[in-house]
Write a structure and sequence with these properties.
By secondary structure, the chain is α+β, with helices and mostly antiparallel strands. It is built from three helices and three strands; from the N terminus they run αβββαα. Helix content is 46%, strand content 28%. A hairpin with a 2-residue loop joins strand 2 and strand 3. The chain binds zinc ion (ZN). The site of zinc ion has 8 residues, from strand 3.
């Protein structure tokens, strides 16, 4: 019947419209984050002149009795950098978490 055909056509059209929208969206949302380039400077922690990387951290600062939340950028040398982040950067520069999990699982199965 023509009624069914029409319904089907509209459904198809709606699906292809939705596909067009979703196929364009991910690229914008997943823009590659530029890795912070190390540069010489005074480390915020050890006060020595070293190659620094910037780390953003949320902090609560209290001034004049009023607390305020803010994003603080710290410049830390490799020695003072948060360890977890340093290790992650060093070990998995190109892979996302899913890939790493898969690799770990495969390695465990193969080795144990
Ligand atoms: Zn340092």
């Amino acid at each position: 019947m023509s009624l069914t055909d029409d319904h089907f056509q509209r459904k198809l059209a709606a699906q292809s419209r939705a596909w067009d929208q979703t196929s364009e969206a991910p690229k914008k949302e997943r823009a590659p984050r530029e890795p912070a380039a190390p540069k010489m400077g005074i480390c915020d922690k050890c006060k020595q002149e070293k190659l620094l990387r910037s780390f953003r951290s949320k902090e609560t600062t209290v001034s004049n009795g009023a607390a305020s939340y803010g994003t603080v950028v710290k410049h830390l040398c490799e020695d003072c950098a948060p360890k977890s982040r340093r290790e992650r950067d060093a070990e998995v520069p190109q892979m996302d978490k899913k890939q790493v999990k898969g690799l770990l699982r495969a390695a465990r199965k193969g080795l144990l």
